[in-house]
Amino acid sequence: MFISNAYAAGATTGGDLMSFLPLVVIFVLFFFMIIRPQMKAAKAQREMITALQKGDEVVTSGGIVGKVTKVTESFVSLEIAANTEITVQKQAVQSALPKGTIKSL
What we know:
This protein has helices at residues 15-50, 101-104; strands spanning 57-60, 65-71, 75-81, 84-89, 93-97. It is an alpha+beta fold. A 5-stranded antiparallel sheet has the order 4-3-2-1-5, with helices on one face. 6% of the residues are buried.
């Protein structure tokens, strides 16, 4: 009357796999919706920075628009106005603009 039924510890089959299934699904969704797009964007940014050359028109992370006049290993010189050049790190270049964009501004 006071004794309850006893069950064996391993009597349920597949219980361990089913308990981890939601975690696996969440990780897969997290990877494809957050991590993978960030990896693709970072790769595109690295390729754009390595492909910089003299004459390219770029925008820095500070919003400065300029034309590349000199490229070194880790720095880029930008002409932002007539006879006005600044030197920024390559990582500060946010995006490359199509040719002729500066003249249309």
